[in-house]
């Protein structure tokens, strides 16, 4: 009896997590074929920053090497020529750039996202790159070995990780950010100032609230200078654009699938075509798109549940915590760290120890948290936020963390009730 044929477009973390979950649930259910545009197995993309810093090697961040695919009887087509360029939904057929094709009974699209490139003058010069994959990391390492001046555009997570890695490789690094605070989507101004001070102590310079005007190149077409709207300029041998990503859904759109800001999926990660599923940074679920690994992995689990025939799981989006992958810097953020007029703030700041905590509550439930310097209670705060439990009984101890809150709650439980006359 012929097995069902599952074709996966995308060999990254989201698609392969779904395949791993599927193999665990029903290892012999499908004949699986995977197409990937990079010439590797599946690697941990979020660990590219430690590779850039020299803390890890490419081999050490591989999740599934090529032998794993063979061991699990998976056909892998990997490399630029194997990038899928068409989906024929009527014939249930996908075809790659070099003409390799595969038929499917079920199709999983996991094409991820693409780095956003701001099209100001000079953005196509040599030496202007993104920070997205192994090729980008190898390019940065090559520049660090022979060049001096690096400019990183973007004061978000990826930009700061790129800046830290290039600095550790010996380059002079300036981070350019269009806001007055770093990580403005994850941190309030106090935590952001602490973070910037720490990076400055490591030799990284910052140009904040800056508007990049143009990249200037030499006669050979290589970037040499960055100019700004205020008339200032910076020397530049390497310009890293780390200003966000956008869902990569053009292939799905060309195939006639419903797309808006991403491939629109329902709570089972199914597209409007019942034979086609999608997971990861390429999708749009209930109006939201995704850029962090936690929700992507949860999507993969739900998708595998349905592909394996169980059909009971539904994807529900929960607040996702943010951490910075830079050695020696402890930072945690989750939920609404600003709050509104109906919220209460609890803050703690030890300037000598560089420890800062900010909790945001509404009606005695936690809606957001920012931790800097001491993040050991981050997962506890996240669980409180997700459970939406009433915290009135431990509110006075909440800022000091789980241990003190638990001790306080136990003491209140052990205290004898006063006698009623």
Automatic annotation (TrEMBL):
Domain FAD/NAD(P)-binding: 5-287
One Pfam family named in its UniProt record: Pyr_redox_2
Keyword field: FAD, Flavoprotein
Cofactor(s) this protein requires: FAD
InterPro entries: FAD-bd_OxRdtase (IPR050260), FAD/NAD-bd_sf (IPR036188), FAD/NAD-binding_dom (IPR023753), FAD/NAD-linked_Rdtase_dimer_sf (IPR016156), Rubredoxin_C (IPR041575)
Domain annotation NADH-rubredoxin oxidoreductase C-terminal: ranges: 321-388
Family named by the database record: Belongs to the FAD-dependent oxidoreductase family.
UniProt name for this protein: FAD-dependent oxidoreductase
UniProt source species: Neiella holothuriorum
């Amino acid at each position: 009896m012929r097995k069902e044929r599952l074709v996966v477009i995308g060999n990254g973390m989201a698609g392969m997590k779904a395949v791993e979950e599927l193999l665990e649930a029903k290892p012999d259910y499908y004949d699986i074929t995977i197409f990937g545009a990079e010439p590797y197995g599946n690697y941990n993309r979020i660990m590219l920053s430690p590779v850039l810093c020299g803390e890890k090697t490419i081999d050490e961040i591989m999740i599934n090497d090529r032998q794993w695919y063979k061991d699990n009887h998976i056909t892998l087509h990997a490399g630029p020529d194997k990038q899928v360029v068409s989906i024929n939904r009527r014939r249930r057929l996908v075809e790659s750039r070099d003409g390799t094709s595969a038929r499917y009974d079920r199709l999983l699209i996991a094409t991820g996202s693409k780095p956003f490139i701001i099209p100001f003058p000079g953005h196509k010069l040599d030496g202007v790159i993104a920070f997205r994959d192994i090729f980008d990391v190898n390019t940065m390492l090559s520049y660090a070995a022979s060049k001096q001046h690096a400019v990183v555009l973007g004061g978000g997570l990826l930009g700061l990780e790129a800046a830290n890695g290039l600095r550790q490789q010996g380059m002079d690094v300036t981070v350019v950010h269009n806001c007055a605070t770093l990580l403005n989507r994850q941190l309030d101004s106090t935590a952001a100032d602490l973070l910037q001070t720490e990076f400055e102590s490591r030799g990284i310079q910052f140009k904040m609230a800056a508007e990049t005007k143009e990249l200037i190149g030499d006669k050979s077409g290589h970037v040499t200078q960055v100019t700004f709207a205020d008339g200032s300029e910076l020397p530049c041998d390497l310009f890293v654009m780390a200003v966000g990503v956008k869902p990569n859904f053009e292939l799905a759109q060309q195939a006639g699938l419903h797309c808006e800001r991403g491939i629109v999926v329902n709570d089972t990660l199914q597209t409007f075509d019942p034979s086609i599923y999608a997971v990861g940074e390429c999708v749009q679920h209930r109006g939201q798109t995704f850029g962090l690994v936690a929700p992507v992995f949860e999507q993969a689990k739900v998708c595998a549940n349905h592909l394996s025939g169980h059909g009971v799981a539904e994807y529900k989006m929960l607040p996702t915590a943010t951490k910075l992958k830079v050695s020696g810097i402890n930072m945690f953020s989750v939920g609404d760290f600003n709050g509104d007029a109906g919220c209460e703030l609890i803050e703690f700041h030890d300037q000598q120890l560089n420890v800062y905590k900010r909790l945001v509550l509404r009606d005695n439930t936690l809606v957001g948290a920012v931790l800097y310097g001491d993040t050991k209670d981050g997962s506890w705060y996240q669980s409180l936020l997700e459970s939406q439990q009433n915290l009135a009984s431990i509110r006075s101890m909440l800022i000091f963390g789980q241990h003190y809150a638990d001790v306080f709650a136990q003491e209140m439980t052990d205290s004898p009730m006063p006698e009623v006359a």
